[in-house]
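Recall the central idea of this unit: under ordinary conditions, the amino acid sequence of a chain determines the structure it adopts. In this exercise we apply that idea directly, starting from the sequence alone.
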Amino acid sequence: WAAQFHHGRWKATSTMDLASLLAYEPLDFLSQASGLRIDEVNYVFCMLLAYPLSFLFRFVPTSAPGLRNFIAGIIGLVFGVFCFRVHVLHVFVLAGGCYFFIRIDPEAKTLHRRIAVFSVLYLTLCHAYRQYYHFGLYLLDVTGPLMLLVQKLSSLGYSLHDAKKETDKLTEIQRRLAVKEAPTALEYFGHVFFFPGFLAGPLHFYTDYQQYIQGKQPTSGSFVAALKNFFFAFVCMAINRLPGFLGYDSNLALLIQEAFVNDHSFLYRAGHMYLASVCIRMQYYFAWILAEGANNMAGFGYDSVTKAWNRITNVNVLNVEGALSLKEVLDNWNMQTQTWLKYICYERTNNSVTKTMLLSAIWHGLYPGYFLTFLTAALQTEASRKVRRVIRPLFQSLGKTGLTLYHVLTWATTAFILNYMVGPFVVLELWGSIKFWDNFLWVGHIGALIMFLGLMPLEGRAKGEKKPAKSVDGATAATGAAGGAGAAGAAGSQDALSIESYRDLVDRTGR
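Accordingly, the structure predicted from this sequence is:
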């Protein structure tokens, strides 16, 4: 660096060229050697550097929370400048605007809505700019941290709002995340730029972050948990690279090319879709698990309920790849985002799947493929619920063999529907997305509509047949009032609910 500066690499005539300084990439040699884009190299470099820095951060005394907030924020800011240069100013604009709302009128009844609308609108404008100038390019630019920041700030707004309500009117998660006092500027700065999760998450909520900063979370076992995350992240990356190493082109875009479609059967295309989609998901697994490890290395991530280092776990890989329903996929994929969507949208819109999926699409960006994917996900979710409620009992009546057959069929169906559904999420543009589904004969949509409409009358009959469950020690009423508490209470009686009966109750009540 010093030698290049001394020999005038950054000089324009006799003075330093600021544009060259901002464009200079010290890791360009790694990009050329590895074949990765420079934005990918910078991202991975900072995420790896976060590991030793997180380990050292553990030694900053918890008796000095202000110092911990400052150091955590400064390192995150340096990461932002290194990866995004001047574009890191977008983080300041978004965070500064939301903090302005908090400080100017922290008691405002619409504070949560102001923050949510402003943050989502600003992110949408950034998405629109990126889409206009870099359409279809997968760049690791500042919109990634901005997406995480929208989650952090909008959830903080709702946490401040919920603290003003009576606790009996709040759900469990709303009570846990409620924030009674607005954060100071330094607390807010640390929350926004917390370096282990600034670039790739996972999302952390303000209450959890403050407990960590103040030393109210245990750190024993975090080092081993972080090393496991580190190892598993690179296993995922190795799987991602394996097809290319073996000479197989796992590009999903082949499925919208006429030559490829005409030369291969439906089953072959379905197999290619599965392999290509798994490889794409492995990239997400790599980033999320690596980032989770950095958080764990800093001692942030212990869950006192599960007694494990999974407080901010973002994905359960085996549960996603082995899911027996779309709900299982959603419960184990991008888990912190699912919690955020549930917290600020699903629970506050009368459990509306469509509105929640629409918010998710807007948060991801403005590409038509995003909206097609998430609206299709809403349809598939409703259809899969009806399948579980109506079809599953028929297989259960056949005994263990029937249930095993049901699991095999639902795994294969879920894997196909998942990959079919997210094709447009990768293709992005409208006509390419339509062509993708057209090359699979729209079987995912047709099947979902048949199941949704065809099983609707049978679902009502099935619900009617299950009404006698009310006699089981009042469990049905208790489930409606307090989630699973009724089932737990019934467990001590002779008519205790089986786990399957409990799941049926959950399916019927939606709680």
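The first strand starts at residue 11 and ends at 12.
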